[in-house]
Amino acid sequence: MTAVLDVLAAVALVSGGLLCLAAGIALVRFPDLLSRMHATAKPQVLGLLLVLIGCGLRLRTAVDITTLVLVGAFALVTAPVAAHMAGRAAYRTGQVRRDLLVTDELADHPPDAP
Amino acid sequence: MRAVAVCLTVLLGLAGALTLVRILRGPSVLDRVIATDVLLAIIVAAVAADAAYHRDATALPVLVVLSVLGFVGSVSVARFSTGAAPPSATPSPASAAEPDR
């Protein structure tokens, strides 16, 4: 049982690390802010949750798992808000590459001048 | 578990280095904010992985503090960053005096 939990924890931890590496590569290679934001949400939510699950599977005490659940819940609540603020600021200040957009639903409703 | 620790060190180290490249190269403040968010997520993952490797829960409250600090920092910078103004936008006193964003 202990060995199984350790293997599961190892798989979760390495998966989270791979997602972090994917975000790092995407940050260097992707062309503009919005596409980078698309890639950076992965370690911030899924990667973080996987690492926390792996950590909880290794620690296995109620107090530690409660702390980890708190961290995960906080990440789930705050990541969309932070991404929304950054994306809105980017759009309103014209830092979005419009030639890369497939559709722009805000095009008919131009925002106020920044 | 040692192999997993080595693997995680390489993965997270590479990810952090690539993120630092983006923080250095910019080009805008928002790019750096996004990259700093990712760097913070990588740091949280590293601290959690360290706690998992040593079975030592001492560093877990640090994770809570780090997530709070990262959220507040990125939101406030994004809120107040105007960045480079688009070339067509002419600054008018009305829009400058009304920071309702």
From TrEMBL, chain A:
Q: Where is the signal peptide?
A: none
Q: Which Pfam families match?
A: PhaG_MnhG_YufB
Where does the chain cross the membrane?
6-28, 65-87
Domain of life of the source: Bacteria
InterPro entries assigned to the protein according to its UniProt record, in alphabetical order: PhaG_MnhG_YufB
List the GO molecular function terms. Answer: sodium:proton antiporter activity
Which key words are in the record? Membrane, Transmembrane, Transmembrane helix
Query: Would the keyword Membrane be found if you checked this record's keyword annotation?
Result: yes
Similarity comment: family membership: Belongs to the CPA3 antiporters (TC 2.A.63) subunit G family.
Name the record gives this protein: Na+/H+ antiporter subunit G
Q: Which organism is it from?
A: Spirilliplanes yamanashiensis
Q: What is the lineage of its organism?
A: Bacteria, Bacillati, Actinomycetota, Actinomycetes, Micromonosporales
From TrEMBL, chain B:
Q: How does it sit in the membrane?
A: Multi-pass membrane protein
Protein's organism: Spirilliplanes yamanashiensis
Any one Gene Ontology MF annotation carried by this entry is: sodium:proton antiporter activity
Question: What is this protein's record name?
Answer: Multisubunit sodium/proton antiporter MrpF subunit
Q: Which UniProt keywords apply?
A: Cell membrane, Membrane, Transmembrane, Transmembrane helix, Transport
User: Any transmembrane segments, and where?
Assistant: 33-53, 60-80
Q: Name one Pfam family in it.
A: MrpF_PhaF
Per the similarity annotation, which family is this?
Belongs to the CPA3 antiporters (TC 2.A.63) subunit F family.
Instruction: Outline the segment boundaries, as ranges, of region: Disordered.
Output: 82-101
Can you name a GO cellular component term? plasma membrane
Superkingdom:
Bacteria
Compartments, record wording: Cell membrane
